[in-house]
Structures are given as C-alpha cells and as structure tokens.
Amino acid sequence: MTTPVDTNLDLVLKRELAVPVNLVWRGLTEPGLLKQWFVPKPWRIADCRVDLRPGGEFYTVMEDPEGKEFPTTGCFLEIIKEKRLVWTSVLHGNYRPAPSPATGNKECAHIAMTAIIELEALSSGTRYTAHAMHNAPEQKKAHEDMGFHDGWGTTVTQLEELLKQEEK
Amino acid sequence: MTTPVDTNLDLVLKRELAVPVNLVWRGLTEPGLLKQWFVPKPWRIADCRVDLRPGGEFYTVMEDPEGKEFPTTGCFLEIIKEKRLVWTSVLHGNYRPAPSPATGNKECAHIAMTAIIELEALSSGTRYTAHAMHNAPEQKKAHEDMGFHDGWGTTVTQLEELLKQEEK
User: Fold this and answer.
1) CA atoms of B37 and A115, how far apart (whole Å)
2) Facing A54 at nearest CB: one of B78, B99, B139
3) Which of A120, A139, A152, B18 could connect to A134 by a Cys-Cys bridge, CB 3.0–4.6 Å?
C-alpha cells in the first residue's frame, strides 16, 4: 500500500535508476554498499549497522570532511524485499522512543521523520520513490533548507553509479 | 521475540487473567470492548478507533468525570493475534511522527512511550504482560508518578471483569 502524501508536510523524490531492482535493494540494505552512497561526498559514512527487521535498529555515523562525526539512530518499521523499506528517526531499536529534545547538534539538527522508500521494477531498471514524512510544516521546511532535494538527489545518483560498478 | 526490559527506562506489569487468550485479544483490539475498560473508572473512553495493521492509527479520547476530553493518537507497530500487540505514542497513523513538543495538556502530560502487550495462553486463562518503554529515566518517573502501576493495574482488572461478563 502506498502511503498518501501530505503536500504540507512531506517531501518526495522520484527517480528512474538504470539498474535492476534487486541491486537497488542490496544498495539500500547492505551496510557495505550503504556506506558508499548514503551521504553526499565528500561527507562519508564512518559506520553503519542495519538490523533488517521491524523494530531493528538503523545506525549510521555521518562524518564531515574534517572528520567530525554525527551518529544517527533510527528504527526499521516495514521491510518488503525489493518493494518497500520504512524507517523512522523518532524510534530507536526495538521501537524505543528516541531521546527528545534532540541532540543539540546544531550543525546537523535532528529532524523528526519517517522515510518510505518504494521500488518498482521497470524494463529499463527501477523506479525509486523516497517519501519523507514530517510532523509540521516547519519540520518539512527545515528538512528542505538542509538540502533535501539536492542531498537526497545527489545520494541517489551516487547509489546508481555505485550499483552500475557492482553490476559489472 | 520478547523485547529486553531496561529497568532504568521501562515499566512492566504482569498479571494472570482468568479468561481465555482469545477473549483477552478481543478486549485489546475491539473498540466496543476497549471503550469499557481502557481507563480507570470514573474516567471513560468517549471515542476510540483501532486500525489494526502495522502503521494503523490507534485513537482514543479519554474523558474525565467532568466531561473534559483528552484525545490521544498513536500508531500500531506489530500485531500478532493473541500473542503480541505493539503501539507507540511517538507516531501517528501511517507512521507519521507525532507533533512535538506535546500538546501542552498539563493535566494529561504527553509521555513518549512504546507499549508492548504480550499474551500467553495458560490452562487457567492468560498471562498478561504490559511493557512500557520510555526514552529517559525522567519519562519513566513521570509515567510512574501519573500512576502507571495503579492505573494500568486497575484497567487490567476492569478488562478481566468485563471479559468474564462477555464469556457468559
């Protein structure tokens, strides 16, 4: 079931990727691949854990070009292989509510968000839809201002490039 | 899988109920029954919606003896019939993050919580375990101070009494 989009609260990115859906799924769920594309370069993912079950922890450490680390913990909610992956920032592992108010990490403000990634196999590759759900227009705007469209767009391009290499 | 209890953060209530597990499940999930036991009397549930699927909304309106209403929205996370029911207050329907900071409803302060109810069929009835997970010791304490043990204990007794009537 596709979740309705609330245009006041949500951000959506749609792309067609020239790689097959099974590879895209691997890129989304295998830490070794995820680390290579999940933040726009020259940022990088220094560490990553994927406990791929509803209630499983999704842990990433983003690192800026100066080596400063920004750990982020979320929780997987739904996993339908090669079709749909849902996680949220407002829960930690085993569905425990995330600490609030957020980290105080001013350079990387915490966004309360649920992300829904949907994949659809195409003859030419994969339709990729990322749907970021927020709880208030201000949170949507904060996420936009942090560079949602450029950032998520850039990382999806990185994903596609990585998977083309993986395919060879 | 039973979720580990963190004694610094969690509250747990265990009871044996003298009613069969299929009835307990109905009491937990059917709005018509839920309305009759879910808050300690003389409070009552004025309205209730149960969208019983992962991501489904769990909406209740508690009403105090003076008729003042306290609507509460949560989200179901896991539903294993007659075994396990998980919901959280930090998400609304379709996993959208709940508004924060909370409602400003000072008489009924918002607690960031995930509730896990586990049921086990016994020859004598049902083992009932309620596990409330919080994100900080202060939130656990706030929930204790609101009367977790008495409140949840009282409602479970109300549930048992109701189901004994239902059984007849």
Assistant:
1) 35
2) B78
3) A139
